[in-house]
């Protein structure tokens, strides 16, 4: 994953050689950074707040950011990645109103991220996704020029869940502010599907190898002059 500054440098270097990338630096940053696309996609997403790097050490700013969740649980990440592998240690905050506990998780998260921390801190309302108590059964969709190419399970177990509704995929795809993006979905215990996050399509891993054919075919068609 390139940082936004590096992507912009790549974009400009290729442009000087007559190669125009489909995704502009602004579009890359919008989908690569969690805060970038939230405004246009939030009706499908868990409630999200964030704190830029410049305010991470400001206790008042942190308290205000977490106050939006009351005593509800939240999940922590930076603008790009989480430490989900250290769930209780550096990712999950059981009660956003308990400042000491929140700061403990944040402190450990920052230690683990180190110099790779991007943008600041992002807090997302915790949604108990199926299967509750275990890693969520997620689906990843790809979007090309405002259209959903398809969605695929991110694990063998997720395939038993069934894919997100096509109407939801179409609505989200039409609103994604980039010509090439990935979108991850999960379903809660009540049967509601949630858009968990979006990412730039160029740096998003394939959920299954079979997805490559459909994705590249859609990109080819989008790039072929009429």
Keywords:
single chain, 226 residues, alpha+beta, D-amino Acid Aminotransferase, Chain A, domain 1, four-stranded antiparallel β-sheet, 8 helices, 8 strands, 35% helix
Characterization of this structure:
Helices cover 35% and strands 20% of the residues. It has two domains: 7-44 and 131-223, 2-Layer Sandwich (D-amino Acid Aminotransferase, Chain A, domain 1); 48-125. A four-stranded antiparallel β-sheet has the order 1-4-2-3, sandwiched between helices. A four-stranded antiparallel β-sheet has the order 6-5-7-8, with helices on both faces. Helix 1 (4-16) packs antiparallel against helix 2 and helix 2 (25-32) packs across helix 3 (34-41). It has helices at 4-16, 25-32, 34-41, 59-67, 87-90, 99-113, 166-175, 211-223, and strands spanning 48-52, 74-77, 92-93, 120-125, 139-144, 147-153, 180-187, 193-200. The mean pLDDT is 95. A hairpin with a 2-residue loop joins strand 5 (139-144) and strand 6 (147-153). With 226 residues, the protein is α+β, with helices and mostly antiparallel strands.
Summarize the structure.
The protein is α+β, with helices and mostly antiparallel strands and 226 residues long. 35% of the residues lie in helices and 20% in strands.
Oligomerization status of the protein chains: single chain
Mean pLDDT metric: 95
Strand order of the largest sheet: 1-4-2-3
Total count of domains: 2
What's the level 1 CATH class of the largest domain? Answer: Alpha Beta
User: CATH superfamily name of the largest domain?
Assistant: ATP-grasp fold, B domain
Q: Can you name the CATH architecture of the largest domain?
A: 2-Layer Sandwich
Largest sheet: 4 strands, antiparallel
Total helical segments: 8
CATH topology of the largest domain: D-amino Acid Aminotransferase, Chain A, domain 1
How many beta strands in the DSSP annotation? 8
Question: What is the N-to-C order of secondary-structure elements (H for helix, E for strand)?
Answer: HHHEHEHEHEEEHEEH
Shape: globular
